What we know:
The chain has one domain. It is 66% helix and 0% strand. It is built from 4 helices and no strands. The chain has helices spanning 4-31, 38-52, 56-66, 87-99. Helix 1 (4-31) packs antiparallel against helix 2 (38-52), helix 2 (38-52) packs antiparallel against helix 3 and helix 2 packs parallel to helix 4 (87-99). The two termini are 23 Å apart.
Amino acid sequence: xxxxxxxxxxxxxxxxxxxxxxxxxxxxxxxxxxxxxxxxxxxxxxxxxxxxxxxxxxxxxxxxxxxxxxxxxxxxxxxxxxxxxxxxxxxxxxxxxxxxx
Length: 101
């Protein structure tokens, strides 16, 4: 059984890896000098919200899925109303997620 200090360290490490993965996606899109498309916005949003909810491994999955090549993407029906979310908004959300407990 893991002691509480080890558990806290493990969770902090998972959170750091998740937020680094999200930051890498944002940097990739920014490096292409563009804003995220609908697929990327949806997956970035879910990744960041997963960090807020302590679902760090799920956040990493969604961060990775955000960069799925266009021709390999599935259909997604739900509109999360994220049309106005640009990279600056995602950077702010990520900053708040990193600062959350």
